[in-house]
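Lab channel / #folding
Pinned by the channel admin:
"Please post every new chain as: sequence first, then the structure tokens as a reply. Keep commentary short and put observations after the output so the thread stays searchable."

First post following the new format, from NK:
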Amino acid sequence: MRNILLVLFFFFIVTLLNAYPGGVSGYTKKTNTSGCSCHTSTITSTVLVSIQGPSTLQPSQVGDYTVTVSGGAGTAVGVDIAASGGTLKTSDGNLKVLNNELTQPNKKTFSGGQYVFKYKFTAPATAGKVTLFATACSKKSQWNFAPNFDVTVQTVSALGEEIISANSFQLYQNFPNPFNPSTIISYRLSVSSKVSLTVFDILGNEVATLVNEEKQPGIYEVSFNPQSATNGRQLTSGVYFYQLKAGSFAQGRKMILSK
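Reply from TO:
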């Protein structure tokens, strides 16, 4: 009996280790705090993992999200993505569904010092808060958790009440960031306003006007693709700034184009 148990244990360990290139599930903070313990028990602080996407969704709304992995060797990149509610779906062939979580079908390697996993998240049908989790490795012995990402699920009426009570404007950080080839810029208006949303290079030269019109109160999303939004002008990799003006309100943020 003991020999049988040893064989089964050995088979389990071999299967677990061999399964890594094809992805794993159950290794995020949703289910445990040991992370990629099958690789090493120690977190690698130089490996940076981040989740980006909309922080607010309506019930059953689908949002585009990313997990970005950077730092470390970048020679065998893997990820495990989980959610406390809602549904996770793949955006391309770089992820697969495993036990209601997302993981890589095969190991990845860095491009430009990072790897970006893209996926879709469908919010639950009821209002509330949902948490997105991620654990990723740069190679077998280098891994880290992503900071948990909270998504507030609100009805349209609740969003309207939030805007009115806030009595302010808001320009959100674009996502993904860094980006290539495109990114989403979101902003919020509390009252009807003449709105302009403009992109500048690091020298202050205007490279694109994304919005220049009267807008009603609400939350808006604008897609910025450097090639199409700049009339074919080729933008190089680097830092750019985008600025929202609405009435007397003005706010700017930084974004990075990575080619």
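NK: The helical segments are 2-19, 156-166, 226-229.
TO: also worth noting, The CA atoms of residues 176 and 183 lie 6 Å apart.
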